Each structure stands twice: as C-alpha cells, then as structure tokens.
Amino acid sequence: MDAEEFFETVTKRPELLPAYTEAAQAEGMAGEGNEVCLETADFLERLRSEEGSRPWKIVDLGCGDAALAKEMRQRRPDLEMTCVDAAPLARGIVVQNLAALPDDWAAAFDVAVLCRALWSLDYEKVLSEAHRVLKQSPDSRVLVVEPIKRWLDRSKDGGAEQPNELIQALQRAGFYMLRAENVRFQDGAEEGDGTKGVFQFLWASPVPP
C-alpha cells in the first residue's frame, strides 16, 4: 500500500491506525516511555549538543501517538515541534499524507524525524517530501529510525546481499549521509540472523555538509 492509498483508507476507516498503534504498544515500540522513543529523544539531544544549541524547528513525520513530541517537550518545554500523521491519534497532530505535504511547508523546518514511518511502498516519495520541507542548509538534518531487518530484506537480490537499501534511498532523495548507528533493544527475542530488535539510526543533511 502506498502513502496516498493509506491516507485515504484511514480517512474512511479511522479505527485502523489506532489498532496498529495498540499492536506496536504491545511490542513495547509505541506509547509514552517506549524504548525506541526514548533512544530517539536521546539521539536528538546528543546531536543537538554536538552541533550547537541553536533553536530547532522539528517536524515528526509519521508521529503515531506523538510519544516522541511528549518526551521532547518534557525535556525542552520551549521546543517547537510539529507532529504529522494520517490520523489524529493525539491532540495537536496535523493530519496529512506523508507523501504529499502542504506546498507552503517547503524549507520550513530545521529537522525532520521519521521514526518507524517508512513502511509504505512509495517510501522514496516520503523521503523526498522530508527533503523538500527541510531548510536547504548544511545545518538542517533528517533523522530516520527503522528496524534494520526490514531494510536488509529489501537489499537482498538472488541471495546476494546488497548495500543497505535505506541509505541508498536517502541518497536518491538528495540526502548526504553523516552518521549511521545500530541500536539493539531488549524487547523481542532475536531471530536466527540476530536482527530482531535492532534499529538503525541514520542522520543526514539535505545539502552537502
């Protein structure tokens, strides 16, 4: 399913997205205080500290129940953060198709976050939209947080493993890679390849650094 089809589906059947979020909460991957949310907030804090304390205007694309925004605002009450998803699962969420954000959002944000948000078939459109809404500055950033197994599976071709498809997709969308880290979470037992519970945190710039 692509992002537009999903957006139209949940507009007609708004109960679908809460059901998905509840399933993710049961896995410990959604809701306030979940491990992925806390690690993402820590990652943002570390990188902000490394790159200077300038104000950040953040957009959280595919925010789900806005747990990351709640966590970040507890740490920094003055933080300006826009939460976007296909359904209003929490107060203040802007309802939009992630693959077709408003025209007047172009170059509006300093940081775009996509945490477990690139599940649609047209994920490259979502990445391109993230690139478009970022200020075209060497100080702007995108942070993508995704289960690594999903992208290793997409990188296989006839049994031969190819370079990480997510990194390639970011580069095709116009981003320049700055950092890639893998984080293993406690929730969920490992599968045979040892990848379950491992997320990749990718940090990139919309222009050459």
UniProtKB/TrEMBL annotation:
<keyword id="KW-0539">Nucleus</keyword>
<comment type="function">
    <text>Probable methyltransferase required to silence rDNA.</text>
</comment>
<keyword id="KW-0949">S-adenosyl-L-methionine</keyword>
<dbReference type="GO" id="GO:0005730">
    <property type="term" value="C:nucleolus"/>
</dbReference>
<dbReference type="GO" id="GO:0008168">
    <property type="term" value="F:methyltransferase activity"/>
</dbReference>
<dbReference type="InterPro" id="IPR007823">
    <property type="entry name" value="RRP8"/>
</dbReference>
<dbReference type="InterPro" id="IPR029063">
    <property type="entry name" value="SAM-dependent_MTases_sf"/>
</dbReference>
<dbReference type="GO" id="GO:0032259">
    <property type="term" value="P:methylation"/>
</dbReference>
<protein>
    <recommendedName>
        <fullName>Ribosomal RNA-processing protein 8</fullName>
        <ecNumber>2.1.1.-</ecNumber>
    </recommendedName>
</protein>
<dbReference type="Pfam" id="PF05148">
    <property type="entry name" value="Methyltransf_8"/>
</dbReference>
<dbReference type="GO" id="GO:0006364">
    <property type="term" value="P:rRNA processing"/>
</dbReference>
<comment type="similarity">
    <text>Belongs to the methyltransferase superfamily. RRP8 family.</text>
</comment>
<keyword id="KW-0489">Methyltransferase</keyword>
<keyword id="KW-0698">rRNA processing</keyword>
<keyword id="KW-0808">Transferase</keyword>
